[in-house]
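Hi X.,

You mentioned you wanted examples for the new student's onboarding notes, showing what a folding record looks like when two proteins sit in one file. Here is a clean example. The first protein comes first, with its sequence line followed by its structure tokens.
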Amino acid sequence: MTGMSRRTFLGLSTAVAAGAAATALTGCGSSTGHRTEAASAKVKLPAYVPFTKVTPDLPANAKGLSAGYLSYPEELIRSVPKTPGDGSKVTLLTEIWTQPPLPKGSNEHWQKINQELGVDLSAILGTDPGYEEKFSATVAGGDLPDLMWIPPNQGIQHIAELLESKCADITDYVSGDAVKDYPNLAAMTPAHWKTAVVNGKIWGAPSPYPAFGQVYAGNPEVWEKAGGLSASSPDEFLAKCKEVTGGKVWALEPIYVNAVSVMSQCFGTPNKWRQNKDGSLTFWQETDEYLAALDFVLKLKQAGVFYPGDPKMADAYLKMAQGSIGATVFANPSGGRANLRTNDPSLAAEILIPFAAGGRQPNHHYHLGTIGYTALKKGSEKRVRMLLGVLNYLAAPFGSKERELLEFGTEGADFTYDEQGFPQRTKKGKQQVEGFYSGLATATTAPFALLPSAFPGTHGPEDVKATYAVEQKLIGTAIANPTVSHYSDAYTEHYGRMSTEATDLVNDIVSGRKKIGEWKPFWTEWRSKGLDQMAREFQKSIEKNA
């Protein structure tokens, strides 16, 4: 998804399905029990029916490898045979990651989409930051929109209560083979649907996202003098960082918690939780492996290879393109490649593949695979099925007529085909289509694929091949978070504060304000403040599912 802010990109790669707790919702009663973790294990997920009418040049696989397309189809297929809407008004609450589009009344593209959907669609477009406030204010108003995007990481609390009291349980409509009534939604994998499960029920259409997680992406011109952004050991990586640092160039951005996160993959940390032989769970940041990664990042800091800026700096990506920072952390490989092309079309980002450190095998951490899901307001069966039809249209795949219209608009007015045959938005298309599509694709979209159009400039096919090759390398060590699709009330209640305190402590340790010896005691204290309870609740859910 293009245009996401740095804060959200990186936050999405660390969130889990249960969500973080911060902003309390009003306007909904508590109609659920307090022990929801067990119920979330029992739902039958929708059948997985991959879309096969358009064949990718580079095939996807069940481990998360993205489908890759090198050219634009000569003939587009239709994935939605009839208009899904019933002519009624539909309101969507979603988030956009770019400039807002022209309002519906003066936006011909928006009006065209409404004709195709067969509804009068209005959209409440939140922004980042600020979506949690927009969401809470909308819920507090009492009159909920028909469709509401629910992210996993933006501090929205009491989601279970909101869903049970105000939203439609769509389990019977999509569970198992029932999802085949909505073929584009059926093309989503079980991993996608797991993030929409709460209280043993399915509550919405997922918002697919790349399967792979955080990586360092680098400016190749900075790393050329060191032989490229690759290493076989911590010593070699440290030596390379020293070699490229000098004058007005520093090897790494100063966002220390992300540095530790990426380096922890080299030291073999689990993906957020480790499932032990006895079935118990250990949180990744309390492990010896994470501590070793923190110690290594402290050595990087002492060597002077971090840019001397704010750990929350917002312009690190631009500074990398300009050559003053060598590498920054991205939520996934494709994002790193596309972002550097955006800031300098001549630069093709290098991706650091996790190396073995501390005598341990590296573990690349899979992302959730979604950025949330869109829930439906309670209504009659006819109303719910109509709204699912609208979402099915929005999930149209690459190579379909619906996807081209959603993403690029109308040929001639909103886009033209470039020399390689790919749609490129015109000035009018950027005003009408870009922001609107950003919001629609946040609500739901087709499973992620590597497309030349996602990479600015004229190197799209090359970028697809290169990113696909990186994914192939990462798959060899990639591991999943074992708690995805499982629910913990304690996690929802405590994780937000725990994560904030841990991030602050990482910054203090790396900056030299506190000692690394304070790390272990911090986690000992948190075990009794909610961490042990999170682990027990997740374990209980996992055991019931087994």
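Then the second protein repeats the pattern, sequence line and then tokens:
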Amino acid sequence: MRQIIQVLCCFLFLSNILQAQTLGTVKGYVTDTINHSTLTKASVSLLRAKDSILVKFTRAKENGYFELNNIKAGKFILLVSYPKYADFVDQFSLDSTKLTKDYGKINLEDKGKILSEIIIKGNRAAMKIKGDTLEFDPKAFKIEPNAKVEDLIKQFPGIQIDKDGKITAQGETVTKVLVDGEEFFGDDPTLVTKNLRADMVDKVQLYDKKSDQAAFTGIDDGQKTKTLNVKLKEDKKNGHFGKVELGGGTDNFYKGQAMLNKFWDKKKLAAYGILGNTGQVGLGWGDKDKYGQSSYQVTDDGGIYFSNNGNDEFDSWDGQFNGEGIPVVQTGGIHFDNKWNNDKESINANYKIGDIKLSGNRNDINQQNLSSSSIYNTSDKSFEKNMTKNKLDLAYEIKIDTTLTLKLNADGLFKNSNSSEAEMRKGTDEQGNQLNNLKQTTTNDADDKAFNINALLTKRLKKTGRTLSLNLNQSSTDSKSDGYLNSRAEFFTPSVISPDSTKVVDQNKVNNISNIAFKSNLIYTEPLSKSLSVILNYGFNISNGKADRKSFNKSPDGNYNVLDSIFSNNYELDQTINQLGAIFNYKKNKTVFSFGSKFSGVNFKQYDVYRDSTFKQKFVNYMPQMNYQYNFKQRESLRLSYNGSTEQPTLDQLQPIRNNQNQLNTIVGNPNLDPSFKNIFRGSYYSYKVLTNQYFSISSSYTFTLNPIISNVLTNDRGESISKFVNLKDKATTSFYLNGNFGRTIKAIDLSAGIGLSANKNVNYNYINTQLNQTKNSMYSLSLNLSKYKEKKYNFSANFGPTYNVADASINKESNSNGWGFNGNFWANLELPGKLEISSDGNYQYNGKTEVIQESFERFIWNASITKKFLKSDNLKVSITGRDLLNQNVGFNRSAFNGNINQSTYTTIQRYFMFSVSWDFSKMGGGEIKAN
């Protein structure tokens, strides 16, 4: 036994010697550059080179000496930091031939000394993850004098901004931009990004904004809005700043913009005015799906969803531009927010008024695929539209005590819109024989009103984690429209020149649509342990909707007073919901996990006033949910979620009325529709490495809907269709989405490079002449992103790559629309002597041939400007701008849906030249603001 112990001791001794010979040491002294004094307790970090993971950490001793021992062979990064000194960063290797790295004296430079030279070794963390929030640090990016927030955000990895100011982050559209967590002019993000100065910003946060009640309880309720929050520097919250710009150009193009902001104490006052016909600004009415729409759906939790299929001119126009037509815009607004009483009370108010006029022409070529043949339709349309809108919203919050808070929100909308449209349409068969001919004019005048008030009361109880909250919401909408339809449709027998039947419609259309809804939600949270809690909720919701649609034919005396009962209907939809739910929430260390469900008992009543018939339903909806989040470290996170929800049919789908807005496609409602059930799975992963400025993100979702509502279309041999909504019992519609981004800085050439991948696929169904048709629409794209900035010299960014579109239908398989495409965008800025600056941007689009469309489409829209700067701070600019220099901005769109293929061309803004003068003025924090 004694001999065995001696052998083991010798073995352990020898292994320790061998291990000591293969383990390395890093040592050195940390001193000041100027007087070589020791920097006691300087932070010394040893990172693994390939992924920046921390291997060893220590602090310098009183004499500045540090030593890191027992280091395995490999490649490493040494990071030395000390407050108010520039970081020291160096890469090195340890192997069997070199087990010791002795730095001797590491001299750190005082930041105050090198500010003018900017010789900082190391990188600043451009972003980090805080819970559900991705936070960007503006100090890690280049900010030019007089740059706007938009110019800063363009540099953020994973975020894109198009020429109209639309922001896309991680593949999703950012619909809300806040300032210090507060609304700024409500729902128009461009008023923040295009007007606030970048050098006022302390940080920018990206997150999915939850409802106020969900934010308080910490439990997801499914209400999320992709949001950017711009937090301002404390010393930049006093003073005033603004911008004035005027411009005039060829072909009667013009623009004007003014904005004034005054910040003092905890108050913000801002006002703006915009006018022009260039389509560049003031068109982002972000609330188009919230107010003034004619079709609504009450969801299973009592919420209201407004939709508009865009096919009925007698539903009010929502004021959207979308690049189609020539717009004339006048809009303005005023904003005020304040905090007082030691921040216990706050108010946020916004008022906006706007007017947009839109005119243009549109040509459509459509291939309608049937089970054994196709019908080809051509359409020429001209339109004029006008909309005037006033919107006011107000938020007031008071912290009654340290545990009790009340928040009130109220908003209102008044909108008037009128439109006129003339259309000529022709349908032919595959041999070119004429099947139908339609000539139609419509006019319409609509008034919309919407009001909403919401109250949220939150209470924190004595036990930590125990809370109570009550949310009450009352909303109402009212839409009245009056218009005229004059239509003549002719139908032909093949090979016969004269029509053999004609249908004429000459009607006055009067619609009166309203909705009133009340929603309540009481939530109680109870901690079961330090890491587990349960959230219980009860909700009571009630809604009443009315849709009175009347069509009047002309009487012999010339008045429209003869009610057409076939195309008229008065319909009411009432719904009462009682909801119960329980959600469990687990949170420990780096893990957050929640799961549970809500259940709703629904009483559903439909009443057909004209026919005095009632249809009632009672059913139970359930809404399961699951959320999982794991934060590996501060800049690496994984999230997974599942949400299930019942979707009720919309009033447009239910109302048993024949819509003859288009005589070639009559739509019929179906009061016997059942709800659908939607399942949504989401996942995302994000990581960022500071030293290499490397980021990687991937997000995806998969959705499948059971018992979906689809269209059932019957089309005769003359091209005349009747559409009805039905449930599909044994199939599910599905959709899949994937977006990935990877990028890093190439240090050798100081170039930021990235690659993006996007894929989506949708599988839908519809009936065509009783035959079930499955359609598959997919799009795949790959993009390369490049950007480089050289201070006071140049700045450029570009992204480009191929796309592939798939559009297959199970019927008439020979008529697919699969094809390649290519898209590219660039932006560049060059600074010249004499305060001259040249800027240019461009967009290239290519759509290749398909089996159906034998012509490819290609265009390159190129814009450029030359600017002369004046004054000491360069804030007065005179510019000459050329838009669409190659005159290729032909409005074009190609789409495939339910087996039908459509190609559109339309009037849009083309080449013009403009002379403009702009003046940025600012006095914040006691003086002019300079760039970082």
